[in-house]
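[Meeting: bench + compute handoff]

Bench side (C.D.) handed over the final construct sequence. Compute side (W.E.) agreed to return the predicted structure before the next meeting so the bench team could plan truncations. Sequence as handed over:
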Amino acid sequence: MAVRKRKPAPPAVPPPEPPAGPSYTLHILSDATGNLARHMINAVLTQFPGITLAQNYHLMLDQPGKLRDELKRIKGEHSLVFHAMIEPAMKRIVDETCEKRGIPHYDLTGSLVRFLADWTGTEPINERAALHRVNAGYFKRIDAMEFTAMHDDSQGLDTLVMADIVLVGLSRVSKSPTATFLGAQGWKVANVAIAPQTGLPEQLATMREKKVVAFTCIPRLLHDVRSRRIASSQKVAQKAGAAEIAYADMRSVIREVMWAEDLYRKHGWPMVDITNHTVEENGTRVLQLLGLEDQKVF
């Protein structure tokens, strides 16, 4: 008896994708560098992952003519304007122009300034130059950034005691990025790399001041970061010797992390686990552990 072959089932048809929403263009206007506006906008946008948008920054609009010319260039049905102008007259130009053209707009700083003025009984000076004044604090911040750069990755150990903060940790645990973040805030930061093969440098082992914070992370993360570093260079990957293999070997990484954390506990250094945390979060945690979060450095 002949066996009838069963017809293959038709391929599954994926459900139709929902129609894409409109794309928006955010136009961010600033009379200075736009750093404040950039941080505010990006922080808020993390809460709207489904929106398709582009960001256009219009910076250093410090004259009415510049501002009006830039506003003329803003077109499109789905354009939104955010602005961080200091002077009330400049704010009015944005508001009046956008109202006339029907462009949605929002003042990023106006409500905050008004809130402080109303509740303190003090009117703002509305001085744009005050945002980026070159004074003693400015030069202190530059000095801190230079110190941090010169004390990266175990450099400058002879002047380690001059640091405000010392970060210690294994290779690839975000010491350098965190040091750079803190240095830009005006803290003199040194970061020291350690390994079981080399131990602690004498300058760090004998430090008695409360300025050391140790970085750690789960071995899986450290293994992944190191593996990507080796794989990113074909030449390095092809010529990887025993040291490079051990550097990214999972069992070796586990032993390193255990060794490092035992060392931290022995010296009584507070630890920051960087796993799944940003550089900004790690830097803030460092300041908290050292009791520096409320101190103004410039």
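W.E. noted at the follow-up: The first helix runs from residue 35 to 45. C.D. will use this when planning the next construct.
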